[in-house]
Amino acid sequence: MGAGHDHGAKSLGEKHRYRLWIALAITVTYMLVQIVAGLMTNSLALLSDAAHMGTDALGTGMALAAIIAVGRAAAHPLRTFGLYRLEVLAALANTVLLFGVAIWVGYESIQRFSEPPEVASIPLLIVASFGLIANLVSLSLLRSGAKESLNVRGAYFEVMGDLLGSIGVIAAAIVIATTGWYYADPIIAMAMAAFILPRAAKLGRDALRILLQTAPAHLDLKAVTRSLADVDGVEDVHDLHVWTLTSGMDVASAHLSISADAVLGEVLAAARQRLETDYDIKHATLQVEPSASDKACEQPSW
C-alpha cells in the first residue's frame, strides 16, 4: 500500500525560468563583446573569460531547455516522475564543459609564458569593467534560484566565476597599463582556470550523487528509521530507501510492520507527516505489512 504526493508539481527551477532567460541574454551579449575585444587587445585573460562565459551561456541554455522539457513532460502518462533528471544531466554536461575550458586556458597560459605578447591595456580595462557590471546583474538574478535548483546553482557558480574573472582582467589591465608587465595577462588567465576546476568538480559530484541515487548527504538514515519506528502502531521498519529525484526533491520508500490493533490509515498519515516535517521528504511510498513476527516480507535477492 502506498502513500505519497502527486508528481505533477512544477520543477523547482521552472519558477526561475524568466530570470535565467535574462541572465542568458546578458551573458551571450557580453561574451560576443569579449571575443571581439580579446582579439583586438590580444588578451588571453579576456579570451579565456569569454570562453568561460560561453560555457556559462551554454550551461544556462541547457538549464532552460531542461526546465521547459520537465514542464512539458509532467502530463505524459508514461513519465510518472516527469523528466526531472534532465536538470541533473544538464548540470553534468556543464561540468564537462567547465573542465574543458579550464584545461584550454591553462594550456594557452603556459604557451604565453615563454614570450608574452603586447596587450592593449586601456580597451581591456573598459571592457572588463562593463563585464563586472553585467556579472553583478546576473548574480542578483540567479541568487535565489541557486538555493533550490542544481541547474540554477551551476549557472550561479559560473557567473560567480565570470565575476571574479572580470576582476582579474581589470587587475591585469591596471598592472599592464602602469608597469608594462605583460606577464600579468597569462598569470590572471591561469588563476581563472584554477578557480574554475574545484567548482566544476563540486557541481559534477552533486550531479553524480543524484544520478547514482545515493542517499542525500544531509540525511541520517538511521535517524529516519528511528523516527518511523517511533510512530504509534509501527513495530518494525525495513527496506528503507531515500534518494534525490532532482535538486530539492528527496523521495523515500519503506516497509512498515504494524501491530494487529493499529489503524492502518492513521499509521500511514502519521508516518508520512513525520517524514515531511522532520526531513522535508514530501513524497514517500510506504508499504504496510502485518506484525514483524509474522515475517510476511521477503527481501529481494539483490
TrEMBL record:
<dbReference type="InterPro" id="IPR027470">
    <property type="entry name" value="Cation_efflux_CTD"/>
</dbReference>
<keyword id="KW-0472">Membrane</keyword>
<keyword id="KW-1133">Transmembrane helix</keyword>
<dbReference type="GO" id="GO:0005886">
    <property type="term" value="C:plasma membrane"/>
</dbReference>
<feature type="transmembrane region" description="Helical">
    <location>
        <begin position="154"/>
        <end position="176"/>
    </location>
</feature>
<feature type="transmembrane region" description="Helical">
    <location>
        <begin position="119"/>
        <end position="142"/>
    </location>
</feature>
<feature type="domain" description="Cation efflux protein transmembrane">
    <location>
        <begin position="20"/>
        <end position="212"/>
    </location>
</feature>
<comment type="similarity">
    <text>Belongs to the cation diffusion facilitator (CDF) transporter (TC 2.A.4) family. SLC30A subfamily.</text>
</comment>
<dbReference type="InterPro" id="IPR050681">
    <property type="entry name" value="CDF/SLC30A"/>
</dbReference>
<dbReference type="Pfam" id="PF16916">
    <property type="entry name" value="ZT_dimer"/>
</dbReference>
<dbReference type="InterPro" id="IPR002524">
    <property type="entry name" value="Cation_efflux"/>
</dbReference>
<dbReference type="GO" id="GO:0005385">
    <property type="term" value="F:zinc ion transmembrane transporter activity"/>
</dbReference>
<protein>
    <submittedName>
        <fullName>Cation diffusion facilitator family transporter</fullName>
    </submittedName>
</protein>
<keyword id="KW-0406">Ion transport</keyword>
<dbReference type="InterPro" id="IPR036837">
    <property type="entry name" value="Cation_efflux_CTD_sf"/>
</dbReference>
<dbReference type="InterPro" id="IPR027469">
    <property type="entry name" value="Cation_efflux_TMD_sf"/>
</dbReference>
<feature type="domain" description="Cation efflux protein cytoplasmic">
    <location>
        <begin position="218"/>
        <end position="290"/>
    </location>
</feature>
<keyword id="KW-0813">Transport</keyword>
<feature type="transmembrane region" description="Helical">
    <location>
        <begin position="57"/>
        <end position="74"/>
    </location>
</feature>
<feature type="transmembrane region" description="Helical">
    <location>
        <begin position="20"/>
        <end position="45"/>
    </location>
</feature>
<dbReference type="Pfam" id="PF01545">
    <property type="entry name" value="Cation_efflux"/>
</dbReference>
<feature type="transmembrane region" description="Helical">
    <location>
        <begin position="86"/>
        <end position="107"/>
    </location>
</feature>
<dbReference type="InterPro" id="IPR058533">
    <property type="entry name" value="Cation_efflux_TM"/>
</dbReference>
<keyword id="KW-0812">Transmembrane</keyword>
